[in-house]
Design a protein that fits this description.
11 strands; single chain; four-stranded antiparallel beta sheet; three-stranded antiparallel beta sheet; alpha+beta; 312 residues; 4 domains; Tetrahydropterin Synthase, Chain A
């Protein structure tokens, strides 16, 4: 009998000692407290410490994103005097707002801060979010709040909540904020919905006009580019023709200077050669006629420009 009691005692003692052993999974951090005092942090792996009652191991998923919803709950009865999340705008109107705050455990010593404040973290985030939402709504009119709040309030809210919870050293990082519900009270919801529809139609027309203007601008730009390319091509062609004429002239000049050394009258010969080409062209076009009766003994010496033909 004593043997069985001894075995049972050993088993109980072993089971008690094993309460000081814990397995930390990947993505977790362990905070080890001994007699209520934090003694160390540890990453994934096996944690061995004193058994239950003398030490405590808190495992914290550091990559897990948690969420807390704050403000108006659309599922509750709105007829109560002042529902939670019903806020006053800058122009003295009421709106119902609900936001969802995503947060995670910070790095390093923030894990210890999270473990020590775990029980009050979400309440503190909720209070900070309510205060931030009230501040933003009070600074805007009801139209600005309802029409733009889901975009502008969302971008403004996350850093503001982080700023408000930092002094409490809760060990959390605000990841994002999302406005999940934003509407006027039930009594005035229909008129506001009508206004929203009308303003959506206005924005649609504005977008269509903007797209039309951009299309016309693109067409004009394309036509301008085509004309510029055409003008550049024409200018380049004229430049190349001029360069070719200049090159031909320089070659003729060089030839004339070379031939002039042997024949001083070469310029006269060149002049008559060019004049002959010109006269032949003019005669072909009916611009001059030769007066055969004025041919002298020394050859052709008189020409007469023909009168332009009258248009029929």
């Amino acid at each position: 009998m004593r043997r069985w009691l001894l075995v049972l005692g050993v088993i109980v003692l072993a089971a008690y000692l094993l309460t000081g052993v814990a397995q930390v999974q990947p993505g977790e951090r362990a905070v080890v407290r001994r007699f209520g005092r934090v003694v160390r942090q540890q990453g994934p792996g096996l944690v061995i410490d004193l058994p239950y009652g003398m030490s405590r191991v808190d495992r914290v998923p550091v990559n897990f994103v948690r969420q807390v919803k704050v403000g108006f709950d659309p599922e509750i009865d709105e007829d109560q005097s002042m529902p939670e999340g019903q806020l006053l705008t800058g122009d003295q109107n009421l709106v119902n707002v609900q936001a969802a705050i995503d947060y995670r455990v910070g790095d390093g010593d923030a894990v210890v801060q999270y473990v020590l404040n775990r029980d009050r973290i979400e309440a503190a985030i909720a209070r900070a979010t309510e205060a931030a939402m009230s501040e933003w709504v009070a600074a805007h009119t009801v139209d600005e709040t309802l029409l733009n709040g889901k975009v502008t309030l969302r971008a403004w809210l996350a850093p503001k909540v982080q700023e408000r919870v930092d002094p409490y050293h809760l060990g959390v990082e605000i990841q994002a904020a999302n406005v999940t519900y934003l509407a006027p009270p039930r009594e005035v919801k229909y008129p506001f919905d009508r206004v929203s529809i009308a303003q959506a139609g206005i924005r649609t027309r504005e977008n269509e006009a903007q797209q039309y203007a951009e299309q016309k601008m693109r067409n004009a730009q394309a036509r301008q580019n085509a004309l510029e390319q055409k003008a550049q091509a024409y200018a380049l062609g004229r430049k190349r023709l001029a360069e070719a004429d200049a090159e031909a002239f320089l070659k003729r000049l060089e030839q004339y200077q070379r031939l002039r050394k042997d024949n001083p009258d070469i310029l006269i010969a060149i002049w008559w050669a060019e004049m002959g080409k010109t006269l032949i062209g003019m005669k072909a076009n009916g611009q001059i006629d030769v007066l055969d009766e004025r041919i002298g003994a020394d050859g052709l010496d008189i020409t007469q420009f023909a009168k332009p033909k009258k248009k029929q």
